[in-house]
């Protein structure tokens, strides 16, 4: 008959595998979205008419490869790499920056997971990986406003100033997640060094 400790260990392993499966699927979906974003030339962006726009009362218009829809969609049929990078796609699954963040954090997770047995006994220093995860989250938080600014300028250029980008309100989740990761990295590093000193003393 298994002890309570062994039962908890098996249960914990199952949960760990479930997390690995979920994150693995997230990486797969993000990789697929990244490939789509980089290969499909069309971009659809949420826009709204500028207050001074003469096109405000018109239902739609088309200028070259750019279609304008007053209901909130700008379609660039032959987007350059720069436009694919900075213009936020209406379908969030195809946003390059979002997918890069998911893939990067997923890879860091699996690098940490590989050393899970050593981590349980503080025999592996994963503070650097935790620090990298925190830095990625914080960088993402500050890069997104830059992306929105560049996208706003690109939309103005494409529409001769008649339309502006519809931006989303940020809640600071990435920033706080990054700070928590850095905090955990610092705590883990101190615990690891204490354990190493204890091993040397013994």
Structure description:
The protein has 202 residues and is an alpha+beta fold. The protein has one domain (4-201). It is built from six helices and five strands; from the N terminus they run αββββααααβα. A hairpin with a 2-residue loop joins strand 2 and strand 3 (66-69). The chain starts with a helix and ends with a helix.
Task: Please summarize what this structure is.
The protein is of the alpha+beta class and 202 residues long.
Considering the chains and any ligands shown, give keywords for the structure.
202 residues, alpha+beta, five-stranded antiparallel beta sheet, 6 helices, 11% strand
Q: Give the helix proportion (percent range).
A: 55-70%
Q: Number of folding domains?
A: 1
The radius of gyration over CA amounts to 23 Å
- Amino-to-carboxy terminus distance: 34 Å
Largest sheet: 5 strands, antiparallel
Runs in which pLDDT lies below 50 for 5 or more consecutive residues are 1-11
Number of DSSP strands?
5
**H-E string:** HEEEEHHHHEH
Strand content: 5-15%
Supply the number of helical segments: 6
Structural category: alpha+beta
Strand order, sheet with most strands: 2-3-4-1-5
The average pLDDT value, as a whole number, equals 79
Shape by Cα distribution: elongated
């Amino acid at each position: 008959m298994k002890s309570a400790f062994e039962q908890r260990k098996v249960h914990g392993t199952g949960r760990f595998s479930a997390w690995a499966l979920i994150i693995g699927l997230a990486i797969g979906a993000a990789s697929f979205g990244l490939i789509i974003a980089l290969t499909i030339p069309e971009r659809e962006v949420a826009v709204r008419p500028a207050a001074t726009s003469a096109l405000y009362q018109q239902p739609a218009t088309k200028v070259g490869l750019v279609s304008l829809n007053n209901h909130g969609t700008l379609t660039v049929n032959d987007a350059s790499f720069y436009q694919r990078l900075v213009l936020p796609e209406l379908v969030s699954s195809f946003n390059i920056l979002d997918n890069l963040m998911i893939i990067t954090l997923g890879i860091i997770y699996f690098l940490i997971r590989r050393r899970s047995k050593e981590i349980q006994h503080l025999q592996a220093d994963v503070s650097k990986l935790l620090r990298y995860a925190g830095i990625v989250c914080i960088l993402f938080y500050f890069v997104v406003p830059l992306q929105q600014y560049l996208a706003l300028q690109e939309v103005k250029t494409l529409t001769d100033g008649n339309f502006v980008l519809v931006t989303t309100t940020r809640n600071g989740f990435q920033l706080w997640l990054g700070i928590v990761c850095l905090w955990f990295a610092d705590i883990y590093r101190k615990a690891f060094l204490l354990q190493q000193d204890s091993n040397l003393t013994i």
